[in-house]
Amino acid sequence: MRPLQGCRGRGVVVGTVALCLAAGWALQTPQGVSLVVPQPNINATVAQNILLSVEYSCRGVATIEWKHVSSWGTTKIVEWKSGNYVNISMVYKDRVTTFENGSIQLLNVGMRDAGYYFITVTEEYGTNTYGTIIVNVYGTN
């Protein structure tokens, strides 16, 4: 029986092309997402508006999610995709403003707003990063 003509050569060419494509894809794939939290601790008084300030960057489209964790439990505040939809929890519907850089503003804070605020930024390629802001809320005397 004769071996198929050119089989070995085509395999090398196909393998080389596949390797080159994979290498090119790896060079173009984002190397992750970065997140900066300039003010990780916020002190506020009741009825104050606060800005939970962050700045993220990534090469792809990002999904941003904020959660609040306190002694009263965990609540998802908002989730949105950059340049796209915004899904604000009913509990926060009239009290949250979102910003393209990932920040949120929380209006008219109360004692129940004290706690940990977690942001998760996930890029479309699956890489994600996390940040935390601690908010202390004090009553007025």
Automatic annotation (TrEMBL):
<feature type="signal peptide">
    <location>
        <begin position="1"/>
        <end position="26"/>
    </location>
</feature>
<dbReference type="GO" id="GO:0016020">
    <property type="term" value="C:membrane"/>
</dbReference>
<keyword id="KW-0732">Signal</keyword>
<protein>
    <submittedName>
        <fullName>V-set and transmembrane domain-containing protein 5</fullName>
    </submittedName>
</protein>
<dbReference type="InterPro" id="IPR036179">
    <property type="entry name" value="Ig-like_dom_sf"/>
</dbReference>
<dbReference type="InterPro" id="IPR003599">
    <property type="entry name" value="Ig_sub"/>
</dbReference>
<dbReference type="Pfam" id="PF11465">
    <property type="entry name" value="Receptor_2B4"/>
</dbReference>
<keyword id="KW-0325">Glycoprotein</keyword>
<dbReference type="InterPro" id="IPR024303">
    <property type="entry name" value="NK_rcpt_2B4_Ig_dom"/>
</dbReference>
<dbReference type="InterPro" id="IPR015631">
    <property type="entry name" value="CD2/SLAM_rcpt"/>
</dbReference>
<keyword id="KW-0472">Membrane</keyword>
<feature type="domain" description="Immunoglobulin">
    <location>
        <begin position="39"/>
        <end position="138"/>
    </location>
</feature>
<keyword id="KW-0812">Transmembrane</keyword>
<dbReference type="InterPro" id="IPR013783">
    <property type="entry name" value="Ig-like_fold"/>
</dbReference>
